[in-house]
Amino acid sequence: RSAMASPWLGLKFHGPLEVRPHAKAGGGRGVFTVRDISAGEMVMREEPVLRLLQREGSSAHVQLAELAVKSSDKKLLEKISWLHPRTLEDVSKEGLKAARARHGESAVRLSKELNKTRFDPDACLLIILKMQLNAFQGGLFIRMAMVNHSANPNLHKFQPGGNVDGDNPNASEARAIRDIKAGEEVTWSYFSPLLEATPTYQNHLFVHQHYVIPAHFSDQSRWPHPKETLEMKEASENDPDLKEFKGNVSTMLSSLERKLGQLEELLERKKITIDDLLGILESLPGIHLLGPRHVVRARAQLLVARACQTRVLSFGSDGESGETGFRDVEYAACMLEALREVEDIQSLYLPKTHIAVGATLADAHAALTFLLAKDRSYLYKRFP
């Protein structure tokens, strides 16, 4: 491709990276290393050119598109023009049909607000799609938008304020989660580490983000299909409920993940306790059919660990004396057990240097330290 056809070829990075044509990737480009990179090394740092404003009544992608088209910064609009899709012709017929159904009204509204001086409805729709395919939760990053997705990534991207050094709350950074050879493409996962390998979640997110699921995508995952990881030892092959379940595996998992997402929100807002959570998880349809190393089970166990941690740290005691109660020791042990199971699942597909594995081990260390300090005899009895 020529520089005019692919203006991003001249895009400069602040790290050991460069953009190159990549025919098999979305947008026809990828980001590659120009030298060897060690695990843990920071390879990208960038501040968003557009920040997401939380506002009800409009999707995040539409909000960002509105900020873009109303901006007086000509350089910003030029940079956005580099992003995929560059024209609506770059979108499949099925994808464009879905895009018009989802965002058509927003595109028309936005065009009317601008009096069609610069953007007709199709131009506004194109900007919305650029935001949908390239923006992150923290906003729009031009350079980071060039990095492709992989189910087995070699980078981990931090949201603004989540960077390791903590010295720049406005910048998002990416660090290597394993050693990367010179000339290798750098990728990260658009999914949560615990969910990145589940085909059900892949399909859900790609339909939401890209409308069309790439045919080759499922081949990139090392995780077996959920049907192969479901444990149904206690069910009879002649059980009609089992047959119905086998025919609706994806529906069952999607339902479980939606409910887990709701529970995560409740826990974040401190609207649910660990005791409530355990009761709800016990009654969730289908959760007992998950194998011991299923990634959706790992998500549930992470939720349990966080709830236990909240209980121990927030309350600290069962009485008014301020001394740690026996139930707090039990919660710490429950947290440790949950994190041990999470680590077992993560070890199947995440490298030891992955930030998610480090976070799990750090939390497990905190639970273990608490138990050692408060009741060693209980610890040794619970974990002989």
UniProtKB/TrEMBL annotation:
InterPro entries recorded? H3K4_H4K5_MeTrfase, SET_dom, SET_dom_sf
Q: Where is the SET domain?
A: 15-191
- The leader peptide range reads none
A family per Pfam: SET
Protein name per the record: SET domain-containing protein
